[in-house]
Structure to design on (351 residues):
């Protein structure tokens, strides 16, 4: 059935799922690192130094991309399930991916 | 032309399927159903498949062609492959009876499960209810009534594949057309039927139904409509 899945809406669906699962793995780590600021400030500072490395910043681009993809994916679903729309939903799917890329690109530019 | 198509057909019944390859003469104008019929008439009379009208009205000839569910009578060979090779299998998500014949019972049982059947609001002694073709609900219903029950959407849907209880795009779309039909007398019954675990809220909006519907209907839009109406009713607290 691989051939039946090669369309925009299915790709938007799978991107939404994968980004959701990846964020579920990321969030506990994120909160743990934030908690270090209170419990072990020296470990937190060394983590900040680590986060300053270019490869880590590149990885952060991916992270923000995931967040943006997930947010726009959710907005896309809300829009076409809750608003009785007549327009082609593929355009929304494409706009969601485009918006995600734009936002994560902005964060990336600010980081470098 | 004199050229040959390499046609691989999924043969056999439940639990014992295998692929069998045939060389079929290629024609300038040739549908996938023509290819299957040629095999049955000239190469192997034991090949089982279904068709009736050959003009895209009866919905009986749907098969999986090169991994995509299609109505084979209206699908030209050239449309499915650049190369002279085709793989033909029965529809996905349905039990196989034999060769290319899928058992449609689960598909139609789910139409009943979705209350996708007419609930009369008047008896035969009463006058027929007038219908305004310009009415918004009527126009919404009109978008979905050309379904030919071919089960292409049902075979394309990954939610059907993963959730045996899911009613599927075709049944839910028919439920939606009836919900928008002024002549249907059991709208609450329909909303009850489509709000269960296998109902409209199981849909992940992957859109494969809308993508592959040969009549270019939009079951995903219909299911979104059901999602809105079931939730609206839940908030109103109507039973």
């Amino acid at each position: 059935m691989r051939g039946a899945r090669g369309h925009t809406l299915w790709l938007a669906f799978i991107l939404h799922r994968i980004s959701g699962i990846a964020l579920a793995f990321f969030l506990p780590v994120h909160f743990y690192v934030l908690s270090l600021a209170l419990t072990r400030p020296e470990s937190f500072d060394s983590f900040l130094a680590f986060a300053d490395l270019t490869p880590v910043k590149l990885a952060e681009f991916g992270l923000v991309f995931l967040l943006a993809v997930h947010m726009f994916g959710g907005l896309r679903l809300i829009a076409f399930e809750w608003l009785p729309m007549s327009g082609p939903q593929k355009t929304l799917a494409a706009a969601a991916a485009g918006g995600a890329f734009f936002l994560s690109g902005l964060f990336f530019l600010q980081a470098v | 032309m004199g050229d040959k198509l390499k046609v691989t057909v999924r043969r056999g019944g439940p639990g014992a399927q295998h692929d069998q390859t045939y060389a079929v003469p290629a024609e300038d104008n040739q549908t996938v159903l023509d290819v299957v019929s040629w095999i049955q008439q000239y190469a192997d009379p034991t090949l089982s498949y279904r068709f009736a009208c050959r003009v895209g009205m009866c919905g009986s000839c749907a098969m999986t062609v090169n991994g995509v569910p299609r109505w084979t009578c209206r699908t030209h060979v050239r449309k499915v492959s650049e190369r002279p090779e085709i793989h033909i299998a029965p529809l996905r998500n349905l039990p196989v009876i034999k060769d290319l014949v899928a058992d449609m019972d689960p598909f139609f049982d789910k139409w009943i499960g979705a209350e996708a059947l007419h609930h009369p609001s008047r008896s035969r002694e009463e006058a027929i209810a007038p219908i305004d073709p310009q009415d918004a609900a009527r126009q919404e219903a009109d978008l979905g009534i050309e379904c030919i029950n071919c089960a292409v959407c049902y075979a394309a849907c990954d939610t059907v594949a993963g959730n045996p209880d899911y009613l599927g795009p075709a049944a839910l779309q028919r439920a939606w057309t009836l919900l928008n039909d002024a002549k249907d007398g059991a709208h609450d019954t329909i909303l009850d039927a489509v709000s269960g675990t296998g109902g409209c809220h199981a849909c992940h909006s992957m859109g494969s139904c809308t993508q592959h519907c040969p009549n270019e209907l939009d079951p995903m839009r219909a299911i979104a409509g059901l999602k809105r109406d079931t939730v609206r009713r839940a908030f109103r607290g109507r039973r």
Notes: The mean pLDDT of chain B is 94. The domain at 4-102 of chain B is CATH 3.10.20.30 (Ubiquitin-like (UB roll)). Chain B touches chain A at residues 64, 66-69, 92, 156, 158, 161, 204-208, 210-212, 220, 224-225, 227-228 (CB under 8 Å). The beta strands of chain B are 4-13, 16-25, 62-65, 68-71, 85-89, 96-98, 101-102.
